[in-house]
Amino acid sequence: MKFARVSDKVAVDVVESDPALLFHPTLAAEFVSVPDNVRVGSVLTGKTWSSPPDQPPITPAVVPVQMAVIEFLRLFTSSELAGFNALRKACQALTPADYQAAAGGDQTKAALVGFEVFLTFYDALRAGLIELNHPETVQGLNLLVPLGVLTPARLVQVLAGEKPS
User: What ranges do the domains of the chain cover?
Assistant: First the structure.
């Protein structure tokens, strides 16, 4: 499914995933569901989308949403951070049997192994910046939902860079 931000009946931004996971909520609210053939520059006439003539497809650049690691950590509540740290310990305790279970379809073990991969990147960047909209960051944070650290609603808030209320 695609989503587009439309200005004067022209698709100015087109994405293939939930805009709420990619953009600030104010901007994400401007996106609407569109057919798969819509691309940047497509024109809406009535209820029909058409591509502009003689115009090659345009791929919009994704601007990284970056923040210092300390600011990233401030996006979580103390109980969420405790859950994050408990998962880190669980990742350190993974055994070869756990990896086999993950490869064999054990969803909990697969999520834990996936989170371990996220931690590898996270630890490498601790002194630098976190890119909230980077696919690997989004994937790693998404794993916190089935692992019980974040609710789906809190995940959306974290990915939007919103501190807990």
Answer: 2-50, 66-159
CA–CA separation, 51 and 70 (whole Å): 44
- What's the start-to-end Cα distance of the chain, in Å? 31
CA distance 143 to 163: 19
H-assigned helices in the chain: 19-22, 25-28, 69-73, 78-92, 96-103, 107-124, 135-142, 152-159
- Give this prediction's pTM: 0.51
Q: Give the torsion through C-alpha atoms of 95, 101, 106, 112, to 10 deg.
A: 20
| Structure confidence by residue, pLDDT tens digits, 99-124 | 899 889 888 888 888 888 888 877 77
CA 48 to chain centre: 30
